[in-house]
Structures are given as structure tokens and as C-alpha cells.
Amino acid sequence: LDHFKTINDTLGHNIGDKVLIEVAERIRTFCSDTHTIARLGGDEFTIVSGEFEKEVDCKKVAGSFAQKLLQILKEPYLIEGHHLYLSASIGINSVGHKTADAKHFIKEADIAMYEAKAKGRDGIIIFNDALAQRVEHYLEIERRLYFSLEHREIELMYQPQLNAQQQLVGCEVLVRWNSPKFGLVSPSEFIHVAEKTGLIIEMGNYIIEEAFKTLKYWDTIGIHLEQFSINISVRQFFNSEFPDDIEHFVKTYLDSRLAKKVVFEVTETIFIEDIQRILDAMQRIKAFGISFSMDDFGTGYSSLSSLRDMPIGELKVDKSFVMRVGEHRSDEQMITTILTMANVFNLKTVAEGVESEAQFQFLLKNGCDIYQGFYFSKPLSKEDFEGYARRGVERKQLSSLMYEI
């Protein structure tokens, strides 16, 4: 389903659950007894049919079937007095004479479905050779990723965060995969695979542990940051042992003073399902001194109630808005709205993707607290960040000396 989270955010999970029941009923009514129907989780459904394979052009028949289903799902919903409208994105995979397990075929259909979403939603994509090459690359990434942690191919990078006076106040911990086979692999490529396979749990713990070690080391050599941000995936939060793992890392590497510098960045998608479970985990982690930031704010469908009810202390303005400052008035208005909302809720603000003086000045004028981007510095290795921090201290000392003179 497309934009289903909007219903959950605006009308509540009770209405959202009833919508899912109605969608399931429409699918069941539309399909015949020869179809197998399942809800995979969240707002994703799967239909398995042997009928299409009997046709000369089974892909064409399956496409026609899917098109009719789309129209049925787009008919208005009346749920507890609310008139709702939905669309869906459908991926189709024809098994034919291919030999593989069901999990493999469903994964291919899943990739086709996400391709339909990427092309604007409310559409259908049939799995094809081009997507097959992408799947083969995906599977190879998946295979190699299992060895990456053991062979220490996952590297941590640190991007400086500066205040309005352009003084270093913190950093965001980023990851890079330096693979002997693929070279430098983008996080956008391998983090998704890690989440799908569940490897993100082990990888996430590795990143947190190494980051905590770095924070402790920097503090001992005189690099005293105000905040130290680490990205946390949705999958990690749904791991029941996650709060216990964090408690272990905090007790092993940090004291209460250093723990208060740690910020866990989460995206808006964390609030799609089982909010109470997420909230309980966040409250436990917050008790260790760690705070939370909502990353990529404004790109999803967070409601104002999320800002009010969740233990969020910071909003990050997404770089997709920042990069269009000076070009699109609507993006500038979105930024000023986010900064105003943050002020109302007494939240700190961080702008990411700052790449020009004009962008920095616009954000500064509108009251942003912290800035991050290539205008100040690219992500740095541990050693390079230490040099960057020392140069910042030297500049500060020189400025203070000149003021005294």
C-alpha cells in the first residue's frame, strides 16, 4: 500500500488496522480459491497463483489481473466515518521453469514492487532481466557482507558538526564498506541489505561499540565534543536485546558524563508499527543518558503528536531541502516551518548537507543551531578528525589572543 503510514499517523493505529482488514477482504474477494493470499507484514500482501502459468503470455495475464486489483484497492474506504483513498504498488514475478526456493521468488517480486514505488507508486512492475542483474548484485552484496565485519572491512567515518560561530561541537558517525571485491560501497546500497537479512543487528552493535571506544579515547586526549551522533536502524529497535546491549556498551566504555553526549539518530519510519514497543525501548535507553534525534525530518509523514509524545530532543533538517535553498521557495518555507516547529517543542536543530555559504547564511538567519556538510568538512577518518579538532582549538586560541591584544 502507498503512504499507509499517513493513515496511522493522522487517524491512529486502530483505524489503520481496520483499513488493513478491509484491504485483505477486498483481495480475498477478488481472488479465486486457487490463489494463496498472505500478509507478509506491515502493509505488504502477497498473492501466489498457478493459473497464470497455463496462459501463453502469463506475464500479460498477470499484469491485467494486477491492474484490475489496483482499481479495486483504489475504491473509497469508509472506516468509522472517515472517507479514505488508497493506492498500491505491485511487483510481479513469473516463476515459469526457473528453479529456486519460494523465498528467492518472493524477493524478486519484492524488488519489482519497490521499483514500482520508486517510479511514482500506483503502478505495476514485472520482474525482468535488468532487475535480475540487480538481484544478482544484491545477493553478491549479501554474501560478501557476512564476511565484512569479521575482516574489519566496515570503517567508521566522522563528519564534523559546527555551531553558528563555526566552532566544532560534535560529529555524526557514518559507515563505509571498503570491500576488496566491490571497492567503496555506498551505505545506501549495503545498509538496506543488512536490514533485510538481519545482519544489521550485529553490524549495528559493532558500529556502536567502535564509536563508543572512539568517544572515550577522544575525551582522554582532550577532544571534548558536546554531542556524538550515531544512526540506529528500525530493525535494531525491534531486537528485544537492543536496550540490554546498549546498557552493556555504556557501562563498558562510558561514564555518565560521556553517555550524555551520545545522540541516537532515528528516522520517521521507526514509528510505523508497534509504537509502544519502540517507546519502551527509547525510554530505557534514555535512562542511560543517551538522547534521540529525528533524522531526515520532513521527508516522511511524522505527525505533530510524534514530536510531542516521543522522547526526541533534536530534529535534523534533511539535505534534500537544504540543497535547494535559493532555488525553490517551497523548500525554504519547509525549512523555516521545521525550525519554527522545533522552537515550539523546544528541540535542538541540525541541518545536514550544507554545501554553500548561501545555504549556511539562510539557515543561520532562521535560527538553526548546528550545521553539517561539505561546506565545513567531508566525513573524516578517526585520525583526520583529530587533526581537524586540534586545528579548531588552535583557531579558537588565536582568536582569543587577538581579542586580548
Task: Report on this structure.
It contains 16 helices and 15 strands. Helix 12 links the parallel strand 12 (291-297) and strand 13. The model is unreliable at 397-405 (pLDDT under 50). It is globular and about 75 Å long. The chain has helices at residues 4-11, 13-30, 58-74, 102-118, 129-148, 187-197, 200-220, 234-237, 242-253, 256-259, 275-286, 304-309, 319-322, 329-344, 357-365, 382-404, and strands spanning 36-41, 44-48, 77-79, 82-84, 90-92, 124-126, 154-162, 168-179, 183-185, 227-231, 262-267, 291-297, 314-317, 348-351, 370-371. The chain is an alpha/beta fold and 405 residues long.
Question: End-to-end span in angstroms?
Answer: 66 Å
Q: Which sheet architecture does the biggest sheet show?
A: 9 strands, mixed
Work out the strand percent: 15-25%
Low-confidence stretches: 397-405
Level of helix content?
40-55%
Which architecture of the largest domain per CATH? Alpha-Beta Barrel
CATH class of the largest domain: Alpha Beta
What spatial form do the alpha-carbon principal axes imply? globular
Q: Count the E strands.
A: 15
| CATH fold naming of the largest domain | TIM Barrel
